[in-house]
């Protein structure tokens, strides 16, 4: 049992501490001999713990009634389900002695009590529950939780869980914000009800209260980061749209690459909007981030998507009805993939990290498109580098920042894999920009390219360039003259400038191969 320090025995002045709040810390077993214990489900010897406590005044002087829940993280050795064991507790807080005593409580089956009302209004609990459902929970784990629920019922049936803790106030120079924060250090014991020894080893608890003010600030700072990133992405998209403003330039950009990024921004918009609706006090911050993501995908990326589709569409002279039908097919495919992706991520929740890696392969369609079409400089280098870094910001914060507000455990290996994967894609694109789109393919297996400086019949004496309307000297056979596959002659500079706008012959409008 815990000893009470001499200074904690001083009852004057009588100041009742309100210990209602959320506490986060660690737990660890004092023994590792699980062989004689009834419940070996606590396979690990340490992990993280979260307390949700609600304290209320009673008629007894110096005694507060406390109820709440305890969440043990990492209680299982199962790799697929590391374990989030929840126990409901109730007890008393004897505030003159700073002593907290609690026992397990299964609680009523129906109705909301004061504790559940607190949970439903606590943004830390709500956002943590939302992020765990989005990033960690899965249908497979929900099936496993049924077995875990049976384990909890068996635990409550055979064990008498007792918690004894000492409450102390954190000094003002060690806490964030102006409100009082408390530290809890205690012991969890589990004597069996049938006198057959302990259910599991005694567990040492060590937790501190969380400043909701700091938590709000973290959430607001995150939304400001998302808003700033969205603004940068708008600038990068404008720069890229100017770089490929001509029909020939837009035709060099992969439709799948832009479409994949638009779907990612649509998902982020829905995710932030849902978080804002879930936590009313943070609605303005999350709604602002969702709005900027909506602007990125619905205005700029969809507009660019349409420009790329029109540039790659053959000019057959068909009417507006045919074009409108093809456009409706394009939009139906886009939103069909968008909704289908939501269903896939819901059904394959446990594979969310590999799915995110697949979503962040959006540069690969452009790399393959460059190799197939042998395109020249389709993307601006600033767009490649800027989009790579801004796209990495949100997943790196969620899975790589230890103090993220989403209560997601840090996964350094996954963050390293994602960073290397994105960096490799960006490096290949930059090398394609400066060295050529097929720089990594051996010349022996490359298909033959059309030569605009090919030989032609000697009986041609003089022709005019229809672009600049001046004569071309074809007798000298210099690099000043280029010949198209349809046997039309142009000045080299004139035709190259023309192909930057349209990949069509200026004379007969036939499609031209890349240079």
UniProtKB/TrEMBL annotation:
Chief subcellular location: membrane
Chain ranges of the RING-type domain: 465-509
Places the protein is found: Endomembrane system
Example GO BP: proteasome-mediated ubiquitin-dependent protein catabolic process
Metal-binding as UniProt keyword: yes
UniProt KW Ribosomal protein keyword: no
Reaction(s) this enzyme catalyzes, per UniProt: S-ubiquitinyl-[E2 ubiquitin-conjugating enzyme]-L-cysteine + [acceptor protein]-L-lysine = [E2 ubiquitin-conjugating enzyme]-L-cysteine + N(6)-ubiquitinyl-[acceptor protein]-L-lysine
Domain of life: Eukaryota
Residues passing through the membrane, by range: 219-238, 285-306, 327-346, 352-371, 420-441
InterPro entries for this protein: DUF2921, HRD1_E3_ubiq-ligases, Znf_RING, Znf_RING-CH, Znf_RING/FYVE/PHD
Gene Ontology MF, one: ubiquitin protein ligase activity
Annotated Gene Ontology cellular component terms: endomembrane system
Pathway annotation from the record: Protein modification; protein ubiquitination
UniProt EC number: 2.3.2.27
Keywords of the record: Membrane, Metal-binding, Signal, Transferase, Transmembrane, Transmembrane helix, Ubl conjugation pathway, Zinc, Zinc-finger
UniProt protein name: RING-type E3 ubiquitin transferase
């Amino acid at each position: 049992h815990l000893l009470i320090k001499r200074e904690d025995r001083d009852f004057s002045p009588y100041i009742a501490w309100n210990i209602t709040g959320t506490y986060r810390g660690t737990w660890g077993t004092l023994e590792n001999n699980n062989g004689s214990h009834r419940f070996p489900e606590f396979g690990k010897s340490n992990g993280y713990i979260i307390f949700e406590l609600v304290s209320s005044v009673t008629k007894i002087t110096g005694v507060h009634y406390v109820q709440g829940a305890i969440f043990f993280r990492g209680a299982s050795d199962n790799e697929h389900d590391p374990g989030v064991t929840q126990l409901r507790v109730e007890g008393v807080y004897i505030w003159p002695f700073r002593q907290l005593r609690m026992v397990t409580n299964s609680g009523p089956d129906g109705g909301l009590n004061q504790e559940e009302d607190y949970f439903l209004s606590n943004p830390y609990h709500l956002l943590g529950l939302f992020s765990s459902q989005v990033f960690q929970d899965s249908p497979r784990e929900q099936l496993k939780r049924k077995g875990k629920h049976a384990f909890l019922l068996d635990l409550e049936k055979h064990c008498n869980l007792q918690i004894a803790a000492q409450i102390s106030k954190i000094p003002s120079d060690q806490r964030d914000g102006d409100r009082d924060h408390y530290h809890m250090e205690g012991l969890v014991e589990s004597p069996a009800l049938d006198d057959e020894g302990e259910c599991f080893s005694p567990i040492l608890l060590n937790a501190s209260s969380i400043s909701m003010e700091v938590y709000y600030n973290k959430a607001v700072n995150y939304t400001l980061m998302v808003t700033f990133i969205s603004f940068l992405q708008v600038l990068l998209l404008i720069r890229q749209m100017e770089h490929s403003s001509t029909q020939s330039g837009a035709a060099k950009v992969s439709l799948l690459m832009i479409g994949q990024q638009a779907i990612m921004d649509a998902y982020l918009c829905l995710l932030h909007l849902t978080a804002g609706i879930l936590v009313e006090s943070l609605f303005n911050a999350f709604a602002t981030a969702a709005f900027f993501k909506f602007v990125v995908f619905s205005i700029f990326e969809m507009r660019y998507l349409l420009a790329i589709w029109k540039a790659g569409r053959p000019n057959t002279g068909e009417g507006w009805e045919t074009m409108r039908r093809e456009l409706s097919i394009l939009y139906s495919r886009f939103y069909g993939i968008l909704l289908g992706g939501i269903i896939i991520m819901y059904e394959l929740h446990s594979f969310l990290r590999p799915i995110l890696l697949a979503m962040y392969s959006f540069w690969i369609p452009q790399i393959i498109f460059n190799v197939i079409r042998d395109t020249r400089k389709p993307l601006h280098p600033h767009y490649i580098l800027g989009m790579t870094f801004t796209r990495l910001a949100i997943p790196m914060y969620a899975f790589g920042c230890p103090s993220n507000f989403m209560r997601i455990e840090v996964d350094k290996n996954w963050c390293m894999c994602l960073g290397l994967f994105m960096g490799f894609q960006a490096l290949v694109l930059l090398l394609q920009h400066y060295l050529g789109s097929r720089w990594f393919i051996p010349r022996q297996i490359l298909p033959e390219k059309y030569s605009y400086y090919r030989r032609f019949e000697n009986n041609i004496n003089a022709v005019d360039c229809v672009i600049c309307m001046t004569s071309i000297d074809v007798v000298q056979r210099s690099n000043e003259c280029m010949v198209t596959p349809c046997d039309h002659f142009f000045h080299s500079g004139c035709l190259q400038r023309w192909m930057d706008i349209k990949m069509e012959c200026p004379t007969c409008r036939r499609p031209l191969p890349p240079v």
